[in-house]
Amino acid sequence: MPRHVSILLGESCDPLIAGAQSLLKRGMGPACLVDATFGGGGHTAYLLEKLKELQSAWPGLKLVGVDRDLHAIEAGRERFAEALNENRLELVHSRFASLLGHLSGRPLVGLLADFGISSDQLDDASRGLSFLGEGPLDMRMSQESGDPSAFDLLETLTQKQLETILWEYGEERFSRRIAASIIEARHRGELVNSTRDFAQRIIRALPAAHRHGRIHGATRSFQALRMAVNQELQEIEAFLAGPVIKLEPGARVAVLSFHSLEDRLVKQAFRDRKFFLSLTKKPARASDEEVAQNSRARSARLRVAERLL
Predict the structure, then answer these.
(1) 20 to 30 A from 214, CA-CA: which of 28, 97, 226, 274?
(2) Residue 29: is it exposed, middle or buried by C-beta count within 10 angstroms (0-12/13-18/19+)?
(3) DSSP class of residue 245?
(4) Which of 73-77, 116-120, 197-201, 241-245 has the lowest mean pLDDT?
(5) Are residues 108 and 237 in the same domain?
(6) What's the pLDDT tens digit per position in 58-91?
(7) Strands 301-307 and 252-257, bridge-based pairing
(8) Handedness of CA 87, 92, 96, 97 (dihedral sign)
């Protein structure tokens, strides 16, 4: 079973179900409600339970779980075998840019995206997403894609390009020092494909007074490099320009962001009053109780909008 705990479950899923219920009155045929970031299946499990009654009244309504991580999809096929056999659920291995092609023209009556990183992915040392375990400096969400790994990027980026990534994606104030240290190590042939070595190199590049703070000194750099490797902001732009725009009028979209740059893109998209009615004037945040149970919830921001005519 996955260890990952989904955040703001009811707050993100319930509005989608309510929107789909309102569309049932139109007498629609086959349609999809999509969990576009399936991950460990937490949101999907919640939606499947809450959709039982609606799917009984609307046999053509199917929940579709989508993820670019093939391992997540394969684990989901085992966990949700019953729902798959009952034809209530469909699992799709896809990036946002090609998601619509997998829906075969079926109306999209609800859409959920959680842009956070799964705890299950972080705990898998072979992915290289965390400096807490020893593994290759990979960081790819889809390791079978053939895309460059984090180590591949570090082998090719210029110092200025790396500095920009660390500053813009990680908001790392010592981006220049860190980038210079990494490129110098590369020139000396000392750049090693190792998460812990990379983390230690970052720490050594920091001023002594900043090496041991409340937040590990390599946290921002790991986040920035991961975002660059997976082109996460570009993926979000594809999501907002594709599936979100293709929602049926009256359908709703819920988005969980964990980074200010992500949230800014979503906020700007939902401001378009020609296409959306924002149902959250300010992003919803996790309660103190939820944060106490799951510290990752502290940075979560939820925005919900309804697609207009």
Answers:
(1) 226
(2) exposed
(3) T
(4) 116-120
(5) yes
(6) 999 999 999 999 999 999 999 999 999 999 999 9
(7) antiparallel
(8) negative
Average pLDDT of every residue of the chain? 93
Task: Give dist(CA 296, CA 294) in Å, integer.
Answer: 5
CB-CB neighbours of 265 under 10 Å: 18
**pTM confidence score:** 0.92
Q: Taking 60 as the threshold, does the pLDDT of residue 1 lie above it? A: no
- Residue 51: both structure tokens together: 């959709």
Q: Could you list the residue range(s) of the whole structural domain that residue 276 is in? A: 9-120+232-307
- Residue 215 DSSP label: S
Contacts of 298 (CB under 8 A, 6+ apart): 286, 291
How would DSSP label each residue in 97-143?
GGHHHHTTT--EEEEEEE-SPPHHHHH-GGG---SSS---S---SSG
- Count: domains in the chain: 2
User: pLDDT for 258-299, tens place per residue?
Assistant: 999 999 999 999 999 899 999 998 999 999 999 999 888 899
Cα separation, 281 vs 22, whole angstroms = 22
Tell the residue number behind the tokens 């041991």, with chain if given. 212
Residues in the chain: 309
In angstroms, the CA 241 to CA 153 distance is 27
49 domain-assigned: yes
Residue indicated by tokens 């569309």: 23
- CATH for 149: 1.10.150.170
In the numeric block, which tokens belong to residue 170? 């990680």
